[in-house]
Amino acid sequence: MASLAASFGRGAMTNHWRDFKNSDVILVIGANPAENHPCGWKWAHVGRDERGTQIIHVDPRFTRTSAIADVYAPIRAGADIAFFGGLINYVLQNKLYHEDYVKLHTNAAFIVASGYQFNDGLFSGYDEAKRTYDPATWDYERVAPTAPGAGGQPAGSSGGAEALGPAAGAPSGGTQSPVAGGTPAGGAAPAAPVAYAKTDPTLQDPRSVFQLMKAHYARYTPEKVSEITGMPVEKFTDIAKRFGATGTPDKVGNVVYAVGLTHHTTGVQIIRGIGLLQLLLGNVGRPGGGVNAERGHANIQGNTDNAVSWEIFPGYLAVPKPGMNTMADYMAKVPAKASAPNAVNYFGTNYKKFMVSMLKAWYGDAAQPDNDFRYSWLPKPGKNSSWLTIHDEARNGTLDGLFAAGMSGLNIGPDSKRMSDSMGKLKWLVVMDPLPTATSEFWRAPGVDPKKINTEVFFFPATHWIEKDGSFVNSGRWAQWKWKVLDAPGQVKDDNWILGQLFLRLKALYAKEGGTLPDPILNLKWDYAKPENPSLDEIAQEINGFDLATGKRVSSFATLKDDGTTSAGNWLYSGSYPPEGNLMQRRGTSDPTGLGYFHDWAWSWPANRRILYNRASADANGQPWDRTRPGIRWNGTAWVGDIPDFPATSPPAEGKGSFIMTGEGVARLFAPGALTSDGPFPEHYEPMESPVHNAMSKVQNDPAVFLYKDAKDTFAAVDSEFPYVATTYRVTEHEHYVTQNVPYLVEAMPDFFVELPVELAEKKGITNGGKVKVRSKRGEVIGIALVTKRMRPLKVAGKTVYQVGIPVHWHFAGGKDTDPAAGKFRTTPEMANILTPYVGDANVRTPEFKGFLVDVEKA
Amino acid sequence: MSTELGLAIRRKSATPASSTGIRRDTVEIAKVVDIDLCIGCKACEVACKEWNDLPAEETSNFGSYQSHPDLTASTWDLMRFKEVELGDGDIAWLIRKDSCLHCSDPGCLAACPAPGAIVQYTNGIVNFDQTKCIGCQYCVAGCPFDIPRFDQKTKKVYKCTLCVDRVSASLEPACVKSCPTGAIKFGGKAEMVNYAAGKVDKLKKRGFDHAMLYDPSGVGGLHMMYVVPRGDRLGDYGLPSDPQVPGTFFSALSVLRKLGSISVWGGLLATGIFYLRTGRRRPPPEDEAVAEAERLGHQAVADAERERHESALSGDGPGGAGPAANGPAANGPAGSGPAATGPGQPTGPEVER
């Protein structure tokens, strides 16, 4: 999601599932929606039947998505940036880009400072010893500082904030949202003088983003793409032509992806590559277009939006870093500054309102203006606490305990053996899940000696989502309330009950014994009707937020204030539960535009907007690029259509920037500064384990990838004993690991299997339906060999490269012949992550589950 | 006119046709599986089991995405997977929902000697009544699509009911309800044929020159039809290109050769006698089958039909033919009967992936 924020300002799918029916071409890459998102995927079929939508599938494997696609092309796992670089180059060289859109809605015209360089695989500012970049040179050339707003509309003026009240311009006929008519917010605090970026609207300046991008990607010729990806040149050019044809105003293309693109050391930059392509073709912000991330669970988007993560608080507010000791420090360093005079810079301008409202939701009356709203109570961690790091700390003995709720770390990996060793070094482990998991049973897993494990493991049986109310937020940002279906059996308790108990007991202990900084615990706002069992409805209201003077729930984030008079657990969800009621429960089916917005169905963040950045669906005069598929349009007094993601009454002539969340006011082809750790433009590097040397530069791997101590010794090199490229994935019959407990689904897809090309199986004497052993430098698994023509040998840099597919659902503690509660397990090693390398993306440390090296043999 | 489940009955196995002449209009219903929309997710497989209380069976991956190698007495709906090469280096992965097609002229019903064990409702549903099933498995041989499955435990035969219980309560079948992409459509037969025609046109425009509606006339049409994008590859989908209602009783006896148990033979023959003495006098489906076979020019089929029909009418037959073992031989056509010569008889289940 970090990549989307770097490109557009927010980390989420830009469009939504229903919108797939509006596309002319859908490019699915690194995703298998027919198998993993079948209910949403149906809208692609509707599009094909109704308007002739073309479906292109690019994937290492020919899957059930390929089976119904119009065009399928194989690709080597981990070669996606080369593919997108090739498409970007093709579009630029053949002038297929949507020039008016690029000029109006992107930073193509911005001039990049002379310090920025790119040389044989490295961007300027690289420190080889530290394996990090100093991004100081990744910036625009700036004009002399001026007072904000000089020469253009004031950035972040009260007008901007007011107009952003959701739907001040109500959606057209019948879709009137209950949140319409948000009240104007107060004026924003005056900003310090800013230095705007220089621009060249003609795009001709050699230091313009456009020209630098053109030069950068000129290296990605179709032949080079084919050499790296293994995709035949004709296939590549066929796809480039088909997708490139969506660069005209009357055509729209949609790129759909999932973890097939993010599970790489270059994951963030791969998604940036999609962003660049879609911006060039003018496909962002438009019905039928977008960069559409498919999330892996029913509520992963809700989790990302609302959870406290190591780098973000709810609503994507940054966790403070060391040195940001006061709110003033934080505000000076974190929120984006306007880089263009016409930038709305809504996020940057209103950041403090959201932060203060969150602190009020957390600390209640204890948070006051004179104590900086208890900003000081927030942690300012100096370290990365990503998934890999947590387990690395456990391994190094610096982490005492772990609370695993609704997830099974041992399965999730990577490098399960290492993961298991790490867990065994914890003092305690709490697993909160409906059923025993591989994690809860790790201490007695096959091959593990319980006597050697000192970890005390607790299991809290918790309700499954079917046994409780609550909300799911789907990939398309729709928060949909759901209701309990079944009573939980036995003494199973809701998560909120368990957490309520835990909190009250911890608080009592802190009250009695004191301890290091007890204040945030003792003062945490916990005024639920039943403190020992907060209801999900109360929590939903808390997330929405209140006007503390009146006690009424707020109607939109536009009404949040930075003076402590409002609260909001997550500003992005302000408006989900206004005074009228819980909008997530809505089930209205009116769709007056026929474009599938369904504004009365549930509620989508932000502000019930269904397509993000929808100002970009219209031209400079506010008229839709394609009249048959308007996103929003200016009707003379207001923007109508979808809920505008733009100041609702700001006329086109005012010229405000269309991407309200960026300091530039436009989308970023070039991502300046610290938005990424590994470069302003996506550049191809090989996966940490690759069968070939990098054909683009001398730099083999992403230079900013963090290498955990002694993990790098577990990576296989080019031309090692592990010659085959492996990739992991899910199949439609199972949902992660839990469905191993569902007999009908075990019946439907019973056994761990490994997909192999026919040619490789023949070479190794492996027969279809027989057994195969797969080894990586980290371990081995044994499964049923599924020998198939769907796994195609590829020609990569003159070599034949075979790819091997390994689904993730199987493990010792579930499925056939097991009774995990009784300690009865399967002994064949079947966890895909036994094989995967302990390394993550350079930006967000998402592990490289796709594109690692293995060997196979008959078992 | 008898009804069950509130549905009007068109005909029953081994039962004289109703002579009341009362006509009750019933909308003929049908499913159509649009293979172009099907993603092979098996939701229908699981929904079928859940609704019909069928047990989960122990399966093993046999080198395929397919859950079971074949239909079973408790798996009435099976997604079949097959990879085919298209010749230009590209491949297709053909996925088909296999379950009872509910023929208008059901070969199973024609073959069934047990009165009322197979019922065809006027809405098109062909259903088995296990309380009346005698386990002879003639229906298995009589089905041109190889659908019914014998349960060794209960000694009865089972297949998809088209959720007759749900349909009679104005609900769609469970598979239809569970289908996430809307690939299984359900409604009036005419409406479904109409949908299919539109879809076939669209597929042709997309380059599927052989796209077709699969609703073969040899069995009088179907109540579970397919929109087949690659209509030139019916065999790869496991669909007979021109299925016929086989000759019934005698061809059913051909199954005896495969069975080889004297006790079963005896039982079957006893059943045969029972059938010939009490069976329908002028069963309309056979007449239609003969006419259809003649129309299609399948003389062997027509002849067999006629021969069987006449034999049935005369009340003379294999019943008096002494030792059970002589039964099939005496009647000749077992090996060359319509079931064997039917042009589209599906070959046995192959290991697909």
User: If classified by CATH, what would the architecture of the domain at 2-142 and 197-295 in chain A be?
Assistant: 3-Layer(aba) Sandwich
* Residue share in helix of chain A: 10-25%
Distance between the termini of chain B: 47 Å
Distance between the termini of chain A: 40 Å
**What is the CATH architecture descriptor of the largest domain in chain B?**
2-Layer Sandwich
Sum up the structure in keywords.
heterodimer, A: 859 residues, alpha/beta, Dimethylsulfoxide Reductase, domain 2, Rossmann fold, Barwin-like endoglucanases, 23 helices, globular, B: 353 residues, alpha+beta, Alpha-Beta Plaits, 2 domains, 4-stranded antiparallel sheet, 4-stranded mixed sheet
Question: Can you offer a commentary on this structure?
Answer:
The complex is a heterodimer of chains A (859) and B (353). The relative contact order of chain A is 0.16. Among the domains of chain A are: 2-142 and 197-295, Dimethylsulfoxide Reductase, domain 2 (3-Layer(aba) Sandwich), CATH 3.40.228.10; 387-520, Rossmann fold; 712-858, Barwin-like endoglucanases. Chain A has a 6-stranded mixed β-sheet with strand order 24-26-25-30-23-29. A 5-stranded parallel β-sheet of chain A has the order 3-2-1-8-9. A 3-stranded parallel β-sheet of chain A has the order 12-13-14, with no helix packed on it. In chain A, helix 1 (2-8) runs parallel beside helix 12, helix 5 (80-93) crosses helix 10 and helix 5 (80-93) runs parallel beside helix 12 (267-280). Chain A is globular, with a radius of gyration of 26 Å. With 859 residues, chain A is an alpha/beta fold. By secondary structure, chain B is of the alpha+beta class. Chain B has 2 domains: 3-102 and 163-237, Alpha-Beta Plaits (2-Layer Sandwich); 247-344, no CATH class. Chain B is built from 13 helices and 12 strands. Chain B has helices at 43-51, 107-111, 138-142, 164-168, 174-178, 189-205, 234-237, 249-259, 262-278, 284-296, 299-314, 326-330, 338-341; strands at residues 3-4, 7-12, 29-34, 78-85, 91-98, 118-121, 126-128, 149-151, 156-158, 184-188, 212-214, 224-228. In chain B, the strands form 4 sheets. A 4-stranded antiparallel β-sheet of chain B has the order 1-2-6-7, with no helix packed on it. Chain B has a 4-stranded mixed β-sheet with strand order 10-3-12-11. Chain B has a two-stranded antiparallel ribbon with strand order 4-5. The radius of gyration of chain B is 20 Å and the shape is globular. The N and C termini of chain B lie far apart (47 Å). Mean pLDDT of chain B is 78; it is low at 19-23, 254-265 and 270-353. The A-B interface holds A 34-35, 38-39, 41-42, 45, 48-49, 52, 62, 64-68, 70, 72, 731-733, 743-753, 767-770, 784-790, 816 and B 36-43, 45-46, 49-50, 56-65, 67, 83, 85, 90-95, 180-182, 199, 202, 205-206, 351, 353.
